[in-house]
Amino acid sequence: MTASEKKLTRRSFLTTTALAAGALATASMAGCSSVSTDEKPEASPETSAPASEPAPVEEKTYSNWCRGNCGAMSCCLDTVVREGKIVSTRQHPVKAQQSIKLQPGCVKAASNIQRIYGNHRLLYPMLQAGERGSDNWERISWDEALSMIAEKMQAAFDEYGPESVGFLSSYSGNSGSLSTVFGGFTNFPEARAPLGVGPERFLQKTGASIFTATGDAAGLYMQMVVLGVPGNSPEDAVNAKNIFLFGNPCDSSKAQWTSILDAKERGAKLTTIDPRFSNTAAHSDLWIPVRPSTDGALILAACNYIIDNDLIDYDYLRNKSVAPLLVKEDGSYLRLSDLDLPLCRKEDPATGETVEVDTEVVYDEVSKTFGSSFEIKDPAFSGTFDANGESVRTVYDLAYESIKPFTVEYAANECGLPVEVIESFAQSYADGPSFILTNWGFQHYQNSWRMYYGLAFLASLTGNACKSGANYGNSLLSTVWLEKPVANPEATAFTVKDAKVSKMASYSRIPDLVNTGSWAGEDYTLRLLWIAGANPIECGIGYTEQIEAWKKIDFVVVAAEYVNDTVRQASLALPVTMAFEAEDLLADGLNQKAIDPVGESKSDFEIFVELAKAMGYDDLYDKDAEGYLRELLDTEDNIAAGLDYDSLHEKGFVFKDAFERNEVVGAEYNPTGRTQFYLESLYSNGNWDAEITQQDRLPYYEHAFEAYPSNPAREQYPLFAVSYHDNYTGHSMHNHVPWLNELRGLEGTSGNGEPYTVIHESAAAERGIKTGDKIRVFNSRGSFVTLALVSKGIREDTITVPRGYAGDEMMEGHLQSVTSIEARDKVTNNDSHNDWICQVEKM
Ligand SMILES: Nc1nc2c(c(=O)[nH]1)N[C@H]1C(S)=C(S)[C@@H](COP(=O)(O)OP(=O)(O)OC[C@H]3O[C@@H](n4cnc5c(=O)[nH]c(N)nc54)[C@H](O)[C@@H]3O)O[C@H]1N2
Ligand SMILES: Nc1nc2c(c(=O)[nH]1)N[C@H]1C(S)=C(S)[C@@H](COP(=O)(O)OP(=O)(O)OC[C@H]3O[C@@H](n4cnc5c(=O)[nH]c(N)nc54)[C@H](O)[C@@H]3O)O[C@H]1N2
Ligand SMILES: [Mo]
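Above: query sequence and molybdenum atom SMILES. Below: predicted holo structure tokens.
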């Protein structure tokens, strides 16, 4: 932070932003567009408004997505433009994504002007003149940049094949149908979701590799892809009796939080399970300070308690869960054809037609016969049966056997909680409808993917699934307040003739690829890495391992909006437009172009189009951006609904006058038609060498990589550490925003807005630490320095560290430097950001 960035006070934040401006006469802000830049932070309506009547200035409001990466979707913003400059970006009243009901008041939304015009904005293509990481830049032209990349790319293709060029993206390049670079989760490259038109056509043409995001992969992959649980909408929480929050929606998901508060008003009991006393915990009836990484043990202990105390919903268990399905010795389901039974005639949900299906088999205890799981009512959920000479067992028996060791006593020890707390957690959960909202913090550990089976088993035992008020994972969000155009299903924008199929892997496997020189047993060289919409050095695990590995890659291109720790490791940085500067279609509406690109920035779409030209692929793109948007939007239905290109280009987002509160109850969309806590086949997400065992198909608890209580390394590094997503940042997207840094830093000490680490008062006393002291957090891999905040609101064995500061915003060191790339797991490749232990010392 520079001195001028720190000059602001909390009050100055309010007076300089739209938050306060709304309450002031609009005219008083006229002409003071400098208020939006951080070079002149003192500017405020009081100081900069002219004394005499201001001349009226023309003002136009545009629709934009905030794209602060605060969740699956973005908030709708009203962007106010005067004389070609943005003067305010505020959440669209009432219908902002993060708050259906709350009045707009997101400080991140209001601070966009300091991101757009801030002094970290990347304005021109920049070539790293010295070594990568040396921060020694030389400005070059787009022509020079593109021909340099084209030459390097062609050489890589010629010498090492198309897979030697790789495109890496996380969730932030979520800029729409033209530009999205994110590749989704799949181990089946043929079945991946299309990227935006720009990158998609380029990848199909070249067959270059795709490296996908790994943050939240455990939850996203296990809940959504593998188990097939969409989750209820958050509004359905009002129908719950007991709500269990494993995350911190109060800060991280205001849409969910609004519903949780509604539910509380209606009498639901809130329990927050979190090692730290979060803002969510502060609003709850009960705070369960679980030891980091051990929730899996808590969940399975609750299953054991529910079974031992017969709190089971037998109807659900038998008829709506996979409990009674029969499993053969090889782990696969017994099917009708195994027993030469007639196939089951049932409706195909997709077509409505009756089809014959070789379904799973269950056992009917009354008639003593086997039959289809879709036909037999109240089948046996426990037992071993002889199926034509083969011994088969129920899923329930396999699962119960698997979880048996994880008793309440085991969990008390592992989770650092009293037995009574675990028992009462199980009792109140069984007393449904119970709504579990996990969010994502508790799955940032190795092996956390296993918890999703545990949650499904818990829900199946008690019937807390597929009904109103019952949820067991993340809940579904949707922009119910927008009239949505339907993209033309016949559009050919996303398909190139003779498309090549890209190899895919999680990006955290890049160090393995370059260090071993092989990919799935074949020789492999990564020559050129292109990063867009991701900040893996600042957000990924294994800071040091990634930087070291990248040194072995010939050329690294980073397309980003502003300079960050990943850009610093680039050979060449390309400036990318923010949402305000380029038109694009998101699933829910058209993001308008409010201003011309800042500096020489271009959208990802444009960059790919121009790169294609430099590569000599002259006819790869047959339309410009508008042409593709028209192809997607100008269908008869969209024209009739006023949601065609011309209409949306003019109107931006089309808000509904009235909208239903969405109380969708998640259906399980897997072929068994039942809540699954067993998987016949499980594939790894982005891991080519994962060995899947029978244990991996069942609920089970396995401790984390490093952050587990019995780890002998705790003698040296006794403390666990959790980082969290606060109100003032969306990952690294809000780094170097002076207003936000000031709001989130430690106040009332010499700190003046510096990052701080929260430490329990007993752990602090042992180390002679007081609030405001400078402390070093370290382990064998790395360290960082912040101020200390001594508190009771954290477990004694845990600290909580600030998330979302760039290296140069920390007092010293880097948060990600203490993480390890080894903390990934074999099934989901989840980045396990919280899976590390440390020691703390006063400086
Ligand atoms: N220690 C710790 N680490 C964590 C977490 C934690 O809790 N603790 N949380 C993790 C989680 S949950 C996640 S999801 C990840 C997020 O990790 P990332 O998705 O990598 O993080 P972001 O900061 O959102 O990425 C921002 C980058 O995208 C660029 N960008 C934004 N929009 C565009 C665009 O349209 N085009 C292009 N080309 N670039 C664009 C920005 O310039 C910036 O470089 O971080 C993880 N890291
Ligand atoms: N303002 C804001 N909103 C965001 C984001 C943001 O960066 N800023 N990021 C978005 C993204 S990509 C994500 S993934 C979500 C994250 O949303 P959340 O999951 O709600 O957020 P986190 O802060 O990662 O984690 C939630 C809580 O989990 C706790 N926790 C850590 N370890 C454990 C554990 O082992 N067990 C339990 N029970 N709790 C644990 C942390 O202390 C934290 O309070 O937020 C989204 N929304
Ligand atoms: Mo995330």
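The CA atoms of residues 256 and 450 lie 24 Å apart.
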